[in-house]
Design brief:
single chain, alpha/beta, Alpha-Beta Plaits, 2 domains, four-stranded parallel β-sheet, 11 helices, globular
Amino acid sequence: MRPSPETAGRYADLLSWLRGLQGAVLAFSGGVDSALLLAAAREALGDRLLAVTLVTPYTPADDVAAAKSLAAALGTRHLLLERPIPDAILANPPERCYLCKRALFGELLSIARAEGLATLLEGSNADDLLELRPGFRAVQELGVQSPLLAAGLVKAEIRRLARAQGLAVWNRPSGSCLLTRLPHGATVTEAALRRIDAGEGLLRSLGFLQLRLRSHGELARIEVPPEDLPRLLEAELRTVVVTRLRSLGYRYVTLDLALDQPGRCSLPAGLSAGGPTARGLAVPPALPPGIPGRCPGRARRFFLWHGHWLFQRCNALFFRS
């Protein structure tokens, strides 16, 4: 499906703003959001762009492989930055996303300064404002720019644009770091993270693309969409899954009947993102104004942001009670 005129207009605004930069470093995860942003920034900035992929023990191996492949295909300068688990998240605290981004994006800002590139970009989109995203507070505090969000692009539009540009990851399922597979408060070890990554790799090799393997010590809890349940429960395949996961050290292999609800390994923390006046959204201040006929895009950004603020405040109050 080709992008609509409204989507194409928002993408044109994105390119226009990117062309006004002197240069940028892009936090590149290999997912569809940062892939589209990489393609746009490459078109707008050329060699004045550096893509950096953070490689930590909790980064899925498939994400690193996807990032390397796409950066090579686009001819973009690409740095793999290996980092250990930050001390602040070794106990997998509820605010892990904030602490992780605060530490690692701080390092990316240092790289940007050393390279003489004034701006750090990341790939949040407008749909992300409707979810609890504690890590976005660090993005705001550090002044990292979120051009897809500022342009009002939502996930479905990003996938259509990525498909139209021939990006291999256009239909890649949304992912998250491996820390989300462990309960809050669990001690994080590289061995535990490798076991989770290996288990999810096994399931993907069997054709399950949208999945999570939650790890609770000796118990593995598999989450898949409803349409994948019948196949996973076939006797022969079920035996393969159980045998292979037990070989990784799991004693119990279970299926979560609540079905693929991201973030359910533990309750979200009651973090307050602060209001739009108190913090301000980290969006490009010079984003080109909407042309006639694109006012709905600007209105959508306004309501998405204020809805996100209200959602965060309600969660903060609820989890403090």
